[in-house]
Write a structure and sequence with these properties.
There is one protein chain. The protein is globular and about 50 Å long. Strands 4-3-6-1-2-5 form a six-stranded antiparallel β-sheet. A six-stranded parallel β-sheet has the order 10-9-8-7-11-12, with helices on both faces. The protein has two domains: about 90 residues, Elongation Factor Tu (Ef-tu), domain 3 (Beta Barrel); about 140 residues, Nucleotide-binding domain of ferredoxin-NADP reductase (FNR) module (Rossmann fold). It has six helices and twelve strands. It is of the alpha/beta class.
Length: about 240
Amino acid sequence: MNNWVIGKVLKIKKYYNKLFKIFIKASINKFISGQFTKIAFIKKKKIINRAYSFVNSSNNLILEFYILFIPNGKLSYKLFNLKIGSKILISNKSFGVFILKKIPNCDTLWMISSGTGIGPYLSILRENKNLERFKNLILINSNKFIKNCNYNFEIKKLRDNYYGKLRVLNIISQENIYGTLKGRINNLIYNGILEKIIGLGLNYKKSHIMLCGNPLMIKETKNILLKLRNMDIYKNNITIERYW
């Protein structure tokens, strides 16, 4: 059972591509970067809630969420149309094992996302704790269109702060954009293109893969990694976080 607290909307930043960021102030328990919480409304005496990952680091008191607006969605539609100062319910607890302490030591940590799945990685990278044990950090941000890469400026600043340790690659599936890689994550792994571009291999002894976002992307990528790289959740070299 969730312990709900009241949160206050401080800011909403909307994009023309049905994506938006919402910033909330609420007194919740300390969470671990990479986890998610639940946001809710009361409708006809029933609590309607959905899970959303934190984008802010755990030491930031302003809670940030990156959300896809779904016109028929029970919650995202209402969140999208909130005003500054609006009150909502948020769980006092946080959930999930998509966190660094669950990941074994290795040379290279691959953080692969699609869509709003970039959120928990930003939380982890903003906090910058327990990352010194990895020699290489790889952040893959996959979207259909370049206009969906709404955290590009933030990601570039993070990359600079890691002084060459963090490598970043945008993958765009529906457009040819200079400086990005065109295609789908699973195909780019299958063909060896992703490893060639990054310059590092998906080695089951030296790498750990984090997958977050679209369930189909996760399923297809996980199957390819098992088939071609002998990597699996049960071998503790893949960690996943699905978004529906």
